[in-house]
């Protein structure tokens, strides 16, 4: 029988604490908060920022671009080793849960903040809702993989972006009734912001770079890399910069540089590998800047998770410089090709794309801009039914 929705959220049912910590969380949470506010009845929320990312470039600028409200609570944990960062979030989150008595804690993605808040909530008997559940790279050397596996084990409601995620969860013994295939909230953000995207020329100008550098007939490519496995070892970082320099002979490459990558290039003395006129180094870009850059690029080279999905939605060919992906649908249906750190493979696939033989792909099921609404409808029903039962 279908649950009758009340006109107002029950006064005895607490708010949903919505957790963000790091840059890739922000574009996932923005449409969720809007859908919760628009739901009938409105789902009350508290936006909690752990403070894992705190720079203007990594944080404030994205909040503005995504029209995210100022967080209700900021734990201000900042940077640290994985243990310190995770422990600090846990320590500071516990009293918030005690004080606010949430109906559930909603976490997104796979960053340290996701796992830390999950552990605190579940041990206090507060249900955990995981958005973007079930993705697996099967590479336990990635900190994000550990965060995903552990979060999913204890989460009560798991929302997935692609159908393969449910198979991964089932293999780990997670009951099917906890899993809902809803689609991809990142694509909600992408579709609702696409018309506000900044022009690539504006992005360069804002960084004090001459836009003429990317206005030639051959167009331009985009590069992002920040995974420790790619940027924390001098020889690997040098070989990747070397092959990117070769590609930049054919097409100018615009880099949006993560602070970790920037500092490692300096620390390892690799600045000489960068040809400033063809390898254009920009600071981390805002959301609308990155959207404009990607949408207009001929090729994207990345090790990011999110960019694999965004390029698939935009139909832009993407080469992922990793040995594995937790987002296989972007390869099977989308524009993504895995090239690892294999320099020949990177060279070959980049040449294919520049010769007009890149993948055009198609947009996966339920990546339609309506995922947050599906989550709001399902979560409200689930919470109210539980509440009525107790
Ligand atoms: C985190 C996520 C990763 C995500 C990435 C996006 C984990 C395990 N990793 O990695 O999944 O793809 O965010 O950016 O949670 N720093 C700044 N300013 C900031 C934040 C960080 O300069 O605002 C620098 C600090 O030197 C810090 C380093 O970046 O030590 C790494 O930050 P951290 O949050 O630990 O991990 P990310 O590499 O950003």
Please characterize this protein's 3D structure.
This protein is of the alpha/beta class and 390 residues long. The chain folds into two domains: 16-183 and 367-389, Rossmann fold; 199-354, Glycogen Phosphorylase B (Rossmann fold), CATH 3.40.50.2000. Helices cover 45% and strands 13% of the residues. It has 16 helices and 13 strands. Strands 3-2-1-4-5-6-7 form a seven-stranded parallel β-sheet, with helices on both faces. Strands 10-9-8-11-12-13 form a six-stranded parallel β-sheet, sandwiched between helices. Helix 2 links the parallel strand 2 and strand 3 (73-74). Helix 3 crosses helix 4 and helix 4 (112-123) packs parallel to helix 5. It is globular and about 65 Å long. The mean pLDDT is 97. Uridine-diphosphate-N-acetylglucosamine binds next to helix 1, helix 2, helix 5 and helix 11. The site of uridine-diphosphate-N-acetylglucosamine (UD1) has 18 residues, from helix 1, helix 2, helix 5 and helix 11.
Task: Spell out the blueprint of helices and strands.
Layout: E1 16-20, H1 23-38, E2 45-49, H2 56-65, E3 73-74, H3 82-100, E4 104-108, H4 112-123, E5 128-131, H5 143-154, E6 157-160, H6 164-171, E7 179-181, H7 185-193, H8 200-206, E8 221-224, H9 228-231, H10 234-247, E9 253-256, H11 259-267, E10 279-282, H12 287-296, E11 299-302, H13 306-314, E12 318-320, H14 329-332, E13 336-338, H15 343-354, H16 371-389
Parallel strand pairs: 1-2, 1-4, 2-3, 4-5, 5-6, 6-7, 8-9, 8-11, 9-10, 11-12, 12-13
The structure holds uridine-diphosphate-N-acetylglucosamine.
């Amino acid at each position: 029988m279908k649950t009758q929705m009340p006109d107002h959220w029950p006064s005895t049912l607490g708010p949903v604490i919505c957790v963000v910590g790091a840059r890739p969380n922000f574009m996932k949470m923005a449409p969720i908060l809007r859908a919760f506010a628009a739901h009938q009845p409105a789902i009350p929320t508290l936006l909690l920022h752990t403070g894992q990312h705190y720079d203007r470039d990594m944080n404030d600028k994205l909040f503005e671009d995504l029209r995210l409200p100022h967080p209700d609570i900021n734990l201000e944990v900042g940077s640290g080793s994985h243990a310190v960062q995770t422990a600090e979030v846990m320590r500071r989150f516990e009293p918030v849960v005690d004080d606010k008595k949430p109906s559930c804690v909603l976490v997104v993605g796979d960053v340290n903040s996701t796992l830390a808040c999950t552990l605190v909530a579940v041990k206090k008997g507060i249900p955990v809702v995981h958005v973007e559940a079930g993705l697996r790279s099967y590479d336990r050397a990635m900190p994000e993989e550990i965060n995903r596996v552990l979060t999913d084990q204890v989460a009560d409601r798991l929302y997935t972006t692609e159908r393969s995620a449910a198979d991964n969860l089932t293999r780990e013994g997670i009951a099917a009734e906890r899993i809902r295939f809803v689609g991809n909230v990142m694509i909600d953000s992408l579709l609702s912001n696409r018309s506000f995207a900044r022009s690539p020329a504006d992005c360069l100008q804002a960084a004090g770079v001459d836009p003429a550098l990317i206005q030639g007939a051959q167009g331009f490519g985009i590069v992002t890399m920040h995974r420790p496995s790619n940027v924390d070892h001098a020889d690997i970082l040098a070989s990747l910069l070397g092959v990117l320099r070769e590609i930049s002979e054919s097409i100018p490459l615009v880099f949006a540089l993560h602070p970790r990558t920037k500092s490692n290039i300096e620390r390892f003395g690799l600045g000489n590998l960068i040809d400033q006129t063809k390898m254009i180094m920009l600071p981390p870009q805002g959301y609308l800047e990155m959207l404009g850059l990607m949408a207009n690029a001929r090729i994207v080279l990345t090790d990011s998770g999110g960019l694999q999905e965004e390029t698939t939605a935009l139909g832009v060919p993407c080469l992922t410089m990793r040995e594995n992906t937790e987002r296989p649908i972007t390869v099977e249906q989308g524009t993504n090709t895995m090239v690892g750190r294999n320099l020949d493979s990177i060279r070959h696939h980049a040449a294919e794309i520049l010769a007009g033989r890149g993948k055009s792909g198609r947009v996966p099921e339920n990546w339609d801009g309506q995922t947050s609404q599906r989550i709001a409808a399902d979560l409200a029903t689930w919470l109210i039914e539980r509440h009525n039962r107790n």
